[in-house]
Amino acid sequence: MAALLNQDRKKTDVIGIPVDFLAYEDLETRVKGFLADQKKHHIIFVSLCDIVMAKFKRELKSSIERASLVLPTSSYICSGAKFLGRFYIPQKIYTFEFIIKLLGAIENNGKSVYLLGGKQKVLRITESNIKSSFPGLTIVGRCTGFFPKDMEKNIVTAIKKASPALILAGSGLPGKRYWLTRNSPMFNPCISLWVNNAFDIFAGKKAKPPKTASGIFWERVGRFFLNPLRIFNVFVYILYFILLLYYKIRKL
Fold it and tell me: What is the mean pLDDT of residues 54-65?
């Protein structure tokens, strides 16, 4: 069954970077396949900046290529796949909504989760909220982020001993998203996922990302005023469109 489920992966590429098509209704089936084959499965979210930077950053590209699911968080990635005439057109994934559905799938399969990251108060509230929302989900351990380097080995050992089905990681990890992939050889078979602000949203410290076009627009306006240097992101968009044209022309 697991082999069949893995063969059903709907993967395409955008500017040479692999991206998955995953409908929310198929997530539980995918999770069952991951849990059944007793392998390590890393899920990674990619923004427009990620897939452009993956052309130049070896570790980022490697982590994307090795991931079991690569899920786009930008509609520009999806429209790029359509522009290139790909068979599978990925759909934009909203990270927090995905995490909720993933935790539900883990709960439905009677499995466990380990929470890693965030500050102590945020992590404590996150654990409490997850327990109340998913009473059938076992939390086998938790550890805050922002830990000193000399604690890292003990944390990795603790996660290995807890042997969770899912490692859900957030802010405060050295190397951020790369911490999971760098330490993956030490873990038992599991699903792993890093989302920087996930625990802050669970704890109510940050609002859930908007889903409407107007909400997304005003969120971006707000982020720009908080950090005007974001104006330089325009060069990422320009490079992306140049790369799209290159791959489109190369295909002709």
Answer: 97
Smallest Cα–Cα separation from 94: which of 180, 24, 8? 24
Per the listing, tokens 């997850």 go with 130
- Establish if 22 belongs to a structural domain: no
Partner residues linked to 43 by β-bridges? 69, 193
- What are the pLDDT digits (tens) for 178-231? 999 999 999 999 999 999 999 999 999 886 665 655 555 444 545 545 566 566
CATH number at residue 116: 3.40.50.2300
Sign for the pseudo-dihedral over CA of 158, 103, 216, 88: positive
**Cα→Cα distances 132→114, 125, 140, Å:** 16, 11, 15
Asked whether the beta carbons of 68 and 184 are under 8 A apart, the reply is no
Say if residues 71 and 231 touch (Cβ distance below 8 Å): no
